[in-house]
Amino acid sequence: MKLSNEGLKNREEWISKGYALPEFDREEMVRETLAHPVWVHFGAGNIFRAFQAAAAQKLLNEGIMKSGIIAVDGFDYEIVEKAYRPNDNLSVLVTLKANGTVEKNVIGSIGESCMLDSENAAEYARLKEIFRSDSLQLCTFTITEKGYALTDASGKELASVTEDIEKGVEKPMSYIGKVTSLLYARYLAGEKPIAMVSTDNCSHNGDKLFAAVDTFAKRWAEKGHVEKGFAEYIENPKKVSFPWSMIDKITPRPDHSVEEILKKDGLPLEPVITSRKSYVAPFVNAEESEYLVIEDWFPNGRPALEKAGFYFTDRETVDKVERMKVCTCLNPLHTALAVFGCLLGYSKISDEMKDENLVSLVKTIGYKEGLPVVVNPGILDPKQFIDTVVNVRIPNPFMPDTPQRIATDTSQKLSIRYGETIKAYLADDSLDVRDLKKIPLVFAGWLRYLMGVDDEGNAFELSPDPLLEDVKAYVSDFRCGEVPSEETVKAKLLPLLKNAKIFGVDLEEAGMSGAVIRHFMEMLKGKGAVRNVLKENTKSESIIDQLGKIGIVPVVVINDVKDAVPLAKALVEGGLPCAEVTFRTEAAEEAIRQMVAAYPEMLVGAGTVLTKEQADRAIAAGSKFIVSPGLNPEVVEYVLSKGVPMTPGTCTPSDIEKALSLGLTEVKFFPAEPSGGLKMIKALAAPYVNVRFMPTGGIGPGNVREYLAYNKIFACGGSWMVKGDLIKEGKFDEIKALVKEAADIVKEVRG
């Protein structure tokens, strides 16, 4: 098997080995691309072939597009020479799925490959010809954020940029200089419209591309190298657009295990390392999840890429999606895993998701600390996004991503990945920044990471970071196994912790520096100290304790399964992420199953469980706790043997003694009001000092405060916010409002 036009003629062999092939006439596509170019892509690397080129192939297969993509590389021409042209611009995309399977596609959507080499007359002339074409609609970019930079880290203009500005438009050497010179060719050809679309993983990427191009246009115009109207052309939104976009797809460098898969198929596609240290191959491996959200601003039209899964929307929505990903739903979780992965000796991110402490850490950061302040962009659901990240994407065993790679430039990431969440808590009167427990833990972990010594006392190499030497200086005097006084640690670290440029806020002013310092001191105690701190701060709370923190358990009766997920959504968004679903309706079992699937972080339990058979069904459906109206010792013992907590109903001393004999110290008090209410609970609590109660029955907004205020009551059960008629009529917004009122009562009473 050979990856070439000739090699693909033996379609049966490729298909027999599991490869999906282009379904269009590739020769005709190439002719159309050469004659009528529509789409140019700068940055011929892995993510381009795994994402944009794969999307184009889908549209070509369906006959929606006729012209392919023109791939251009401007950093390392050997990518074109060694990975593209020898294989007739074909490549293999191996999608690595979380379920352990692989999907193999031959990507044939690239109609032409070019080198952005101003010193190669033929290559540069061809690119200018392409840019003069009426048919050209868009240029996309994956050249990394650094590709748009005209200055170095210190703010000094790059020498190549200075030289290009002075010499002019004919033979620029910098990347953006060359791109701008091509736009000048389009301007001279009649000021033809075009969209310049950055799809690099950086915030407001379109603005970064515009600023760089506009700088060249203006300064060339000032020096007389170009017509003065060129700058006006670049700045005319009806002529040249620079849309914002948000891209998300993990595409590591070509992996050896994937290379071996291809070799076994008889397809030897070996990676090469170019003279510029690029690691390239005729194949690319990537995860299955992908998102590309683009501001719909295309002056010369665009392909129907929404049919390939791209999202087109307005600028505000792109910004919301970007903030959702970067500030809450992915990047903060990745950074936490990167820092602690390096300290704990992990070499693969996916392996970290087998570590219960790290799983608990990232789930808490995402679901509990970040999600309350994320703005829902509408086109992507933040909670579902996190579900995919923690359940599918990061645990994917086929994704060879490393904590060491993700730890790169951490000092530049903390402010946006965590600082924005802290700011949101500080700005919201209904939120308390003290509830952010895991973010200070990550900050402390980063400080411990900067010491360059893992949890077993072994030195390791820190990942590149522009501020590495500066931030390392703050921890240079600390040693594992030696814990200075808190005053000493504070004196050393506080200047760094107050740096709002790094953390997004002054952590001392935010009231978080003390927690960071205490965690860091604990991590200094010696070998295994980092693990011990993680264990202590991520240990699982019992279901009962979690219910106690929520305070009120909605008791719901669901008669129609279709109401289950909307009701769960109302409970979660209203602030009471739990439910006791009474098991006396035919819909109860499936309702529990659907609620748990839709909201895995929610505490869904089954109530009115009377038999072992009902208990089995409830547990199989996903119930995290079981409640019964009375105390049947046989059923209680059976449920507890399954490892599921149970709160049986009690209302007398004899009931409580039966519960104690079964090892229970938390019970339901039912029916609460008819059985004497709070006075009776206090009377029972006097002799049974270790027992805590969940009163249910006759409790509502008029009396729940007095119940919640008593320290022997861990939670109250109630149905006033989830009345049957409201559920039946689909009034979930009204339910959400009532749930919020109930959650506010818990905060009012318990703080």
Protein architecture, described:
With 751 residues, the chain is an alpha/beta fold. Helix content is 45%, strand content 12%. It has 33 helices and 24 strands. It has a six-stranded parallel sheet with strand order 6-3-2-7-8-9, with helices on both faces. The chain has a four-stranded mixed sheet with strand order 1-5-4-13. The longest helix has 19 residues, at 732-750. The chain is elongated, with a radius of gyration of 30 Å. The mean pLDDT is 94.
Task: Work out the strand percent.
Answer: 5-15%
Across the major sheet, the strand order is 6-3-2-7-8-9
* Main beta sheet strand tally, sense and closure: 6 strands, parallel
Class per helix and strand makeup: alpha/beta
Outline type = elongated
The average pLDDT value, as a whole number, equals 94
Distance between the terminal alpha carbons, to the nearest Å? 68 Å
Helix coverage percent: 40-55%
Oligomer: single chain
Number of β-strand runs: 24
Number of helices: 33
Radius of gyration: 30 Å
List low-pLDDT spans.
Answer: none
Helix and strand layout, with pairings?
Blueprint (H helix, E strand, L loop, with lengths): L10 H6 L2 E2 L5 H10 L3 E4 L3 H16 L7 E5 L4 H7 L6 E6 L5 E6 L2 E6 L5 H11 L6 E4 L17 H9 L7 H14 L5 E5 L6 H18 L6 H6 L5 E2 L3 E4 L7 H9 L7 E2 L5 E2 L2 E5 L3 E5 L15 E3 L1 H15 L1 H13 L5 H4 L3 H15 L11 H12 L9 H4 L3 H18 L10 H12 L18 H5 L13 H12 L2 H4 L9 H11 L5 H10 L4 H8 L1 E5 L7 H11 L3 E5 L5 H11 L4 E5 L4 H10 L4 E2 L5 H9 L4 E2 L1 E2 L2 H9 L4 E4 L7 H9 L6 E4 L8 H5 L7 E3 L5 H5 L3 H19 L1
Parallel strand pairs: 1-5, 2-3, 2-7, 3-6, 4-13, 7-8, 8-9, 14-15, 16-17, 16-24, 17-18, 19-20, 21-22, 22-23
Antiparallel strand pairs: 4-5, 10-14, 11-12
